[in-house]
Every structure is written in structure tokens, then in C-alpha cells.
What does this fold into?
Amino acid sequence: MKKTILYFLFLIFLPFIVRSQINPKRYYGIRPELIRGPYLQVATPTSIIVRWRTDELDVSFVRYGKQEGKFDGLAGNGSRTHEHIVTLTNLEPYTKYYYLIEGFKDTLQWDESNHFTTLPPAGAENKYRIGVFGDCGTNSTIQHNVRDQFLKKLGSNPLNAWILVGDNAYSFGKDVEYQSNFFNVYKDFLLKQSPLYPAPGNHDYQDLPMLAEVAQRSGEVAYYQNFTMPTRGEAGGVSSNSSAFYSFDIDNIHFLSLDSQGEEDYGTRLFDTTGSQVKWIKKDLEANKGKEWIIAYWHHPPYSMGSHNSDSETQMVKIRQNFIPILERYGVDLVICGHSHSYERSKLMKGHYGPEASFSTEIHLLSNSSGAYDGSANSCPFVKDSSNRGTVYIVTGSSGRVDYSQSTFPHNALPFSNVTIGGATLLEIEGNRIDMKWICADGVIRDQFTLMKNVNKRSTITVKRGQSVELKASFVGQYRWEGSNKTTRSITIKPRPGTSVYKVKDPSNCIEDVFTVNVSK
It folds into this structure.
């Protein structure tokens, strides 16, 4: 009798027991909810990847179009998943698109800030803006303030891409930390509007050396699961076939995202220079010698006296000794790193591979200018000539926190340094000119420099009598044509018989082009 009663009670409560094991949203037919994204990856002139995550299995669709609220394009698939990765193809180069993400029930997310701009084709000659955030994933007041001031300085200008130089989610690079310290912090504007190109740091490998041995190959840490990389050369450069390191182009600017933490084949790392990563780097740099600019970024800096010491920490020492000579040999223009929770910046330099004390301004500097190009004393731009010598090194690891510094801070090679306030770096690149601005958590730009390439031209032109000729300055900026009130980059002249000399300078008298025009009979 007792067993009969218990069995009867079991049948009565069975539906409630079963229902309690079912997610109530699925049981009652409520739609899945968006918990991450949308965010943008692997942009090219004609394609882009849109990613997001839902709390329940759902289909993946993106509607898009060139007019706000008018979505005549559709991409995606009906396979149900938590991780949604949709590639939009056949887009028009350097064109603004609006988009929304959609699941089985209806729209998962859409507002007026959902838009992106495809990348330009090579040779478009526009002005591009790239943000650089280092050691950002802390969910701290510093991180939020840096984000807000960066966006404020950016204003209505588009950010064509943003890059991460590692330690993107503290303290262990776990998925839950990525959610709270990265995706939730940047979701409203940066992630929705600008394609992201990350590099890993030691914390992205969960800061455990045993994981670094396998994580790069297996992809079993959150970093590799959360991001899609252009590994097949689809965004420019040589195919790397590895999510740990890759390259991409924005117009005629070539970027390399590298991994200074993970181990490669046979246990090699970046600083060994014998593994698959450096073999690929050499191949990629060789294939991209003709690019206007080459920018490499990774986590561990070759020079720093911030919270990490480049004289005593093995990875940094070996990167400087073994790897930096390779990049300098190929004419890399900028090297950007994080790791030290500070801001540190060099002048245009070359050939310093030893400890701090061995740095010599006479031997290693190619310019004694600050590079600030702001009218202050000794602030003319750094200039790289046809020999393409010299690199500027930047440590921008204070996007989420600032820490202590070494007793010898600042490093002798990095005179423009700050360890008291957080910030992020903005690169503005137009033609043969790069402007860097370090935007701080209080909105102040505390450091800046300008780098130019192949300016100060000397040209000889021969024309026939009565023929007009256009003269164009080699540099991007402001112009003063000698003996004229012209302030445009180009002027058209009809020279007198004989030989005439025309000069154009910038207002600071830092750059000068000279045109010698001969008029033939």
C-alpha cells in the first residue's frame, strides 16, 4: 500500500520535476537572448564578419543595407548555435553599411549605432584612423574613462580598425572575464562599428606556462574561441594558417599581429626566431616590401622600464636581441606593445639590441627631434628616407590600469613616458604621413609624434616653352609656396624660358620640396 501511494505521488509530481530541468524560456517558447555582441572581425574592401552570442541555440542572420532602416541584403544560415559567425560578402569598398542581427523569432539587436564601413582598396589615399588598446580588460574606472575619452576625441570620425596588444581580459583570460571585462565594456560603439584585430598576451593564456605549450595549437583558451582571425591571407598579406599570428592591410598600410607568449612547433617561441611564426614573418615582410607603411604589434615589448624590466625579463631580452634585428632589416616603421602598465615611446631609432645602459643617442638615434610637430622647440617630424631605416617603439599598456615603474624609469631609449595615468593610442595615417596621439583617461593628449616617409624631395622637370606643369608637394599637411600666396598641395605653373626654382615648405620650416624646372626651346 505504501509503495502504491509513493508511486501515485511520483506520477503527480513528474511533470513539475521534468519542467524544472528545462530552461523556462525554451519550455514556454520565449526567444533566445543576446548576451554578447554584435562585434566585427576580418574586414576587407568587399566583406566583413559579424559575430554574436546567444544564451540559447538560435539561427544566425544579418540584414544590412546602405541606408539606415533599409536592409536589402541578407546573410546567414539556419543552423542553430550559441556562437554566431556570419560573413557578409559582395560589399562595395569603403562604403558605410547599416545592419541588424536576427534570430528565429525576430530581431535580436538593432539601433542607429549599428553600422560599419568596409575597408578601402589599395591606392585609395584616404585618411585612416586605427585605435590601439593595451592591457585593457580590467573593468576598472581607468578602462571606462579611457574608453570614453578615446571616443570623445574620435568624435564623428570613423575608426577604421582597432587593435589589441594583449592581456585583453584579466586576470586569467577566462570566458567569463572576457564577458565582463571586455565585451560588456566596449559593446555599445567600438565593437559594433569597427573591425577588431587582437593579439594575445600572457593573461590571455590564463597566465599558466603549461597551457602556453598547447594553447596556441589547440585553441582551447577563450582568446582563440572568441575571435576570428584572417589566417588565409583574405585581408591582405601572406596566409599564416594560424590564429596566433596573421597580417592584414588597410589600403597601403600593412599590419602584423604576432604572438609573443604561446609556444609553436617543437616548443619554439617568437624570440627563438626559428619556429613557424618567424619563418612566416620573413615571408610576409618580403612579400610586402612595397607597402607604404608596415606596423607590427604584440604583447612583450623589447624596451621598457615600466611594470616590467626589459633588462631582466627573459622574453623581453631575447625579443630585443634576436627578433628586433629582423624587423629593422625589413624596414618596419612602428612596433607597438603592451605588458608594462605604462606609456613609453622612443624617437626614431635603429640598432639597439643590448641593455638600457648601452643605449647611445649618438649611435642609435636617427633623429634628435621629439617628433611632436606641434611648433615647440626641436619638434619636427621624424623622416624616413629612401633607405627606409629606423623604427619608433611604443608601449601602450595602460588602457585598463597603471602600475609601478622600475627605478630607472623612463628607459633611456623611451624618453616620452608616463606611469601615472591610463590611456590608449590613436594612429591617423594619410598617405606618407603617420600621426600618433596618446589619449589619456582625463581627455588630455600627453604625447604625440608625426612620422613621414620620402619627403624633402629634390626634382628636376623639363618642359617645352609655353607648356604648363603641375607641381605637387611630397608631404601631407599645410603648405607655403615660396614667392606665392598659394597654400594648396599642388600648383600649376607656366614657367619662364630658362631655369626656374620653386620651393614649398610646411609652416614650421621642417619639410621643404625643391622643384627645378627647365624650359626647353
Notes: The longest strand covers residues 48-65. The two ends are 125 Å apart (CA to CA).
